Amino acid sequence: MTEIQNSKRFDLEERTFNFTKSVIGWINKLPKSLANIEISKQVIRSAGSVGANYIEANESLSKKDFVMRIKICRKEAKESRYWLKLLNCNTKELETEQMKLIQESYELMKIFGAILQKTNPN
Questions:
Q1: Spatial distance between the Cα atoms of 30 and 1, rounded to a whole number of angstroms
Q2: Which residues, at least 6 apart from 7, have a Cβ–Cβ distance to it below 8 Å?
Q3: Tens of pLDDT, residues 67-122
Q4: Which of 77, 78, 101, 121 has the least CB density, counted as fewest CB within 10 Å?
Q5: Any idea where the domains of the chain sit in the sequence?
Q6: Cα separations (Å) of 6 from 10, 11, 74, 101?
Q7: Does the domain formed by 3-119 have CATH 1.20.1440.60?
């Protein structure tokens, strides 16, 4: 792998890690309603799964395994977006952060979709 590819891989690992950390930090600021508590559990799992599966993809033993892991990354980013949209904010500041996290999950979906197209052009 070239240094540029290695750097991009690391950047995406870091980006997915930061996405998960940002989701957790934002959730800790939300009002503690029953719905928010239950939905928060879901979004933390899906957001964390994006980065965890990307790390697994980078350590894959075959192209087939790599493609499967990247598909999971895309799916988990999409699921994260869904859960993020459902969480209830009580301030404009939290709502602004929510929109940024939703946008980041959308961008991650697009990135993983592009990786899939380049890896598996069929």
A1: 42
A2: none
A3: 999 999 999 999 999 999 999 988 999 999 999 999 999 999 999 999 999 997 66
A4: 121
A5: 3-119
A6: 6, 9, 20, 26
A7: yes
